[in-house]
Amino acid sequence: MTRTAVIAGATGLVGGELLKRLLESGAYDEVIAAGRRSTGAAHPKLQQLVWDQEQPEASLAGRLKGADLFIATGTTIRKAGSQAAFREVDYELPLRLARQAAAEGAAALVIVSSIGASASSGAFYLRVKGELEQELGKLGLRKLVLVRPSQILGERAEKRPLEHVAGAVGKAFGPLMRGPLARYRPIEAGVIASAMLAAALHAPDGRTVLESEALPAEARKLKQRS
Fold first, then answer.
1. Helical axes 13-24 vs 189-202, angle rounded to 10°
2. Which of 73, 14, 54 lies closest to 195, judged by CA?
């Protein structure tokens, strides 16, 4: 049987790393990169899908049955320009894609959320992430994997000076963060991507939450089971 991976957000930091791994993986015969623009990548099993901005989920119609859907979309409030615009990208868009996946019978949905995500959080960013997780849990997806990374390390196409400084500090002090603080260690985008792929392939059906401190071990499963 042909196994298909669909990735939304492949032009981002985590999404770009995940796309590389999906193309290298022998588990998938077809990889569809869906988004606002082409990734610019070329590979025999890669299909580029530039979606309709008004109805992104409609662009995936008929492609999700039995597929693994990976969602690595996201922005910042500063880049989005307002809380409403941020919510459109980080809540409305992934929820619409997830509903399409549930309607068509996708095999799995693996999505990047955030450490501390909670619908009751006083922080807007974490509250939006938590509300999204709640709604995803109501869709009846066969397999739902919520990935909650701490600060993400890696070279972004866009420059974020404050994140660069914070990342350097976090990387320096990360080894000292142990016990309850371990989950707050910064984590490399490549590790997150590997964990997402491993979870899609090996996590049980139902809802799985991968907190940041669990991601390195999950990522290692790719090598252990290859």
1. 50
2. 14
For 54-122, the DSSP string reads S-GGGGGTTS-TTPEEEE-----HHHHSSHHHHHIIIIIHHHHHHHHHHHHT-SEEEEE--TT--TT-S
Whether 123 is covered by a domain: the verdict is: yes
What pLDDT tens digit does each residue of the chain (226 aa) get? 679 999 999 999 999 999 999 999 999 999 999 999 999 999 999 999 999 989 999 999 999 999 999 999 999 999 999 999 999 999 999 999 999 999 999 999 999 999 999 999 999 999 999 999 999 999 999 999 999 999 999 885 565 555 544 444 445 555 655 666 777 899 999 999 999 999 999 999 999 999 999 999 999 998 776 5
Per the structure, the complete domain to which residue 59 belongs is given by 4-149+189-224
Residue with tokens 């500090």: 169
Q: Which residues pair with 46 in a beta bridge?
A: 31
Sequence-ordered list of residues with C-beta below 8 angstroms from that of 164, at least 6 positions apart, any chain: none
User: In this structure, what CATH number is given to the domain that contains residue 34?
Assistant: 3.40.50.720
Domain assignment present for 50: yes
What is the pTM for the complete model shown?
A: 0.89
